[in-house]
Specification:
Strand order of the largest sheet of chain B: 1-2
Order of helices and strands of chain A: HHHEEHHHHHHHHH
Oligomer: heterodimer
Number of helices of chain A: 12
Order of helices and strands of chain B: HEEHHHHHHHHHHHH
CATH architecture of the largest domain in chain A: Orthogonal Bundle
Strand order of the largest sheet of chain A: 1-2
CATH superfamily of chain B: MetI-like
Shape of chain A: globular
Number of strands of chain B: 2
Structural class of chain B: mainly alpha
Number of domains of chain B: 1
Largest interface: A-B, 92 and 91 residues
Strand content of chain B: under 5%
Distance between the termini of chain A: 56 Å
Distance between the termini of chain B: 41 Å
Largest sheet of chain A: 2 strands, antiparallel
Number of strands of chain A: 2
CATH class of the largest domain in chain A: Mainly Alpha
Radius of gyration of chain B: 24 Å
Helix content of chain B: over 70%
Helix content of chain A: over 70%
CATH architecture of chain B: Orthogonal Bundle
Radius of gyration of chain A: 27 Å
CATH superfamily of the largest domain in chain A: MetI-like
Chain lengths: ~300, ~280
């Protein structure tokens, strides 16, 4: 009996000790250190953004002293002139830039989604010679710094346009098309990767079943494959849209007269330091991309729910 | 019969489906890079346009006149990679070890979100934190720590802060993916065999999560070496990087062959770590 009690107590102690030991094992090393780095890192990531948004509502030009809540900077950017004298920017210019951005990003999104989705389908379903090279080609744009891409494409267009002028005497310059071409070039890879992930999660037997039941390749795609991968395609399109709207470098190198996008406009405002109107525009841009990315992540998350 | 027919159609359709992407990327991505490579060896003509004969003068200039900027770019990118690694690894570990799945997802989301918000805007935010009348100086002046504002903006330090800030998520996400696949039973086994915490980390956990670490380093180093916005907004003349030099050749002074040579140099600085990664770290990733 005594032995029994001893065994039980011993077991309980051992069990507790083991549980505590396991807890230490998994979450043990440098717990406090890890926690403080993580807290510091989150503060580092978020404080600048929060301060920027907060001071876009400040009732003063001061960017460090809080003088009360106001929406006046939001009113200013939509009502006429921003800034003073030679450093002034009109709201009309900003609205034009916004319109340009939406136009360019819209077309680039449609094109890159179509092109990226079709190559993703080919790479996911078919086994063919040279597939390795197509994969490498898709991987390539993701490892090239955007400034190199922007520079090389800008020089490429210069050469092509000079050549056209030499042959036909017609002067061709950078326009919306050059920006769209650049955006599609960097978007294709990302679209393809998101769609391929979705294709991987899909059961290929569903397509075989459709084919067995007499559907042709187009019908199989239209009624089976496409509806199943649609959330992935939509998520890819939103990703492309976000990247296109956010892009500065490629647009900066490829824009011509009157084709400035919103980031180019904001960049020129930052260069002459018109605060806090930039804070207000920035806050609006942050809100827009946050909304886009939440929708995109929700769509991609739907993959796991199924 | 139908399956056979579909398979046959598919056998021919994959090239058709891949063709637009292949054409677009070859014409608008690969071909321009070859043009740049060739142009970098041409002589500067009138208006900055490249003309014959071929010369290596621009590369000579990059490695002599601009060696300071080149070294600074390499150094800053290297330090930014190390700092993001030192912050990113504990951060990824912290996110992974949250027991509540909901908390884990929120923690991950808070890393991803800034990564998708406008880079220009996020970098600009540091301008008014580090500026002469910015938050840090204002705080230190008010608390009496300093009498004169510290020159924080337009320095190499500011560029380093901007690079670390901008590319930290690129380090956290691949490391997180690696730690997520890592089986914590190995930690238990090592400790049962008498390994201490440091020994477990250095000899078990780090080697097993190394693919994520290498991927993170490559993903931070590449955009750092090619950065333009960060050094443009935070660096001033003191923090000038190779990307600014490149943009200058294209936008302002109009020396296209020199700009092309700078492009090729950036490209080769990127290809080296990639080749290294594919050779040593890519297999498990």
């Amino acid at each position: 009996m005594a032995t029994g009690i001893y065994t039980q107590a011993d077991y309980a102690i051992q069990h507790t000790a083991r549980a505590a030991y396991r807890a230490r094992v998994v979450y043990g090393f440098g717990r406090l250190g890890v926690l403080s780095v993580a807290v510091g890192a989150y503060a580092f990531l978020w404080l600048p953004i929060l301060l920027l948004v907060l001071f876009s509502f400040n009732d003063s030009r001061s960017i460090t002293t809080w003088m009360g809540f106001s929406l006046k900077w939001y009113e200013t950017i939509f009502s006429g002139a921003v800034g003073t004298g030679s450093n002034s920017f009109s709201s009309q210019m900003m609205l034009n830039a916004l319109q340009n951005s939406l136009f360019v990003a819209g077309i680039a999104t449609v094109l890159s989604t179509a092109i990226g989705t079709s190559v993703a389908i080919a790479l996911s379903r078919a086994k063919f010679q040279g597939k390795k090279w197509v994969n490498a080609l898709l991987f390539f744009p993701m490892i090239i710094p955007d400034i190199t891409q922007a520079m090389s494409l800008a020089l490429f267009f210069k050469v092509v346009f000079d050549f056209i002028e030499m042959i036909s005497g017609q002067r061709v310059v950078n326009s919306f098309s050059t920006i769209v071409i650049g955006h599609v070039a960097f978007n294709i890879s990302y679209v393809a990767i998101v769609v391929m992930a979705r294709m991987r999660d899909m059961n290929p037997r569903v397509e075989e079943a459709a084919a067995d039941l007499g559907a042709n390749a187009w019908q199989t795609f239209r009624y089976i494959t496409f509806p199943l991968i649609f959330p992935g395609v939509l998520a890819a399109a939103l990703l492309a849209l976000t990247m296109s709207l956010d892009d500065f470098i490629v647009s900066f190198f490829l824009s011509g007269v009157g084709t400035s996008t919103l980031p180019i406009y904001v960049h020129s405002m930052i260069k002459v330091s018109i605060t806090p109107e930039i804070n207000a525009i920035s806050a609006l841009m942050l809100a827009a991309s946050t909304l886009l990315i939440i929708v995109s992540l929700t769509l991609q998350g739907g993959r796991r729910a199924r | 019969m139908a399956v056979w027919l579909t398979t046959l159609t598919r056998r021919h359709s994959h090239w058709l489906l891949s063709a637009p992407a292949i054409l677009w990327l070859v014409v608008f991505f690969i071909a321009p890079l070859f043009i740049v490579g060739f142009m970098s060896l041409m002589t500067r003509g009138t208006g900055g346009l490249p003309v014959m004969p071929l010369t290596t003068a621009h590369y000579d200039r990059v490695f002599t006149t601009f060696s300071g900027v080149l070294n600074r770019s390499l150094w800053l990118s290297f330090v930014a990679t190390v700092i993001t690694l030192l912050i990113g690894y504990p951060m990824a570990y912290y996110i992974r070890t949250r027991k509540n799945e909901w908390v884990r997802n929120i923690a991950l989301f808070l890393v991803i979100l800034p990564f998708w918000t406008n880079f220009l805007v996020r970098t600009y935010a540091w301008r008014f934190i580090l500026g002469r009348e910015g938050f840090i100086n204002n705080f230190l002046l008010n608390t009496g720590f300093i009498q004169e504002p510290l020159p924080l903006l337009n320095t190499e330090f500011a560029v380093l802060v901007g690079l670390t800030y901008g590319f930290l998520p690129f380090m956290v996400l691949p490391i997180y993916a690696s730690i997520e696949r890592f089986d914590f039973k190995f930690v238990e086994a090592a400790q049962d065999l008498g390994a201490g915490n440091w020994s477990v980390f250095w000899r078990v956990m780090l080697p097993m999560t190394l693919p994520g670490v290498l991927a993170g380093c490559v993903l931070v180093f590449i955009p750092s070496i090619g950065s333009y916005v960060t050094s443009d907004l935070l660096g001033g003349t003191q923090g000038l990087m190779i990307g600014n030099l490149l943009a200058g050749q294209f936008k302002a002074s109009g020396n296209f062959p020199l700009g092309a040579a700078l492009s090729v140099v950036i490209l080769s600085l990127v290809v080296i770590p990639i080749a290294f990664y594919l050779r040593f770290g890519g297999r498990e990733a």
